[in-house]
Amino acid sequence: MVERLPPAQRDIARATFGFDGPADAKYIARLATHSKVIERDVRTTQRRADEVVDRIAELLSVDRPAPVRREEPPWHTVSLSVQLVLGQPEIEVFETRRIRSHQFGLAEIDHSMTVNPVDGVHPMVLPEHGIDVVSGGEVQSTTRIARNRVAFRLRPPRVLDTDDEHEFTLRMRLERMSPFYVCTPVYPCAHFDLQARFRRGRPPVRVWRIDGEFSMEADDPTPARPLLELDSTNEVHTAFDDLEPAKSYGIGWLPAVG
Questions:
Q1: What is the value of pTM for the model shown?
Q2: How many domains does the chain have?
Q3: Beta-carbon neighbour count of residue 201 at 10 Å?
Q4: Distances (CA, A) of 141 to 152, 154, 164, 226
């Protein structure tokens, strides 16, 4: 930055910042030495030194890259509560989500769900009859965007404005599913509470906690993870705070054999 100054200012800048001369020379001593070189009194040299410092500050402010402005998501999840019911012929997932709007006039809430294949077979029965809105709005459009992923839009009863909160409950029904359940938020999620109920008389061999892992690794039973204990009703409960987008949180289990 100093080399970009005109020659006269460059010399004063080098003296001001101690680029030349003894490393332990004091500021005033450096200015006094330079005053003799340019044949000026110390006060004049100090005034010019102040001008040089101001000029360098201007150059730095111009060269400083503009901060990257990240686009704010339209909403974030304040709380998510999921009940996973596995102990009956048809698997049911009850999801109650409270969101907070970040924009004025939020009329639709984009949402999605992924159902991973079981033994190579894709059990995706959505969108035909797999999602029911229990409360808090209605599904307006459903699109299958991948073999195992469906996206849909939920329209709340009223349009949301900035900082408005809204809660809705969905029920999803599946014939079968892979032995794990995770939330992988697109937008930030402050709290996620998960309760799973397994079949009586046939509990899983073990259940483990998945905490902030990459989605592609969430279904891998190989990594060592904290184990969760089933209660007397074959239920397990766990919770997470401050979920990061694109990371997975939830549980996995090793099914009973036979």
A1: 0.69
A2: 2
A3: 8
A4: 5, 8, 23, 39
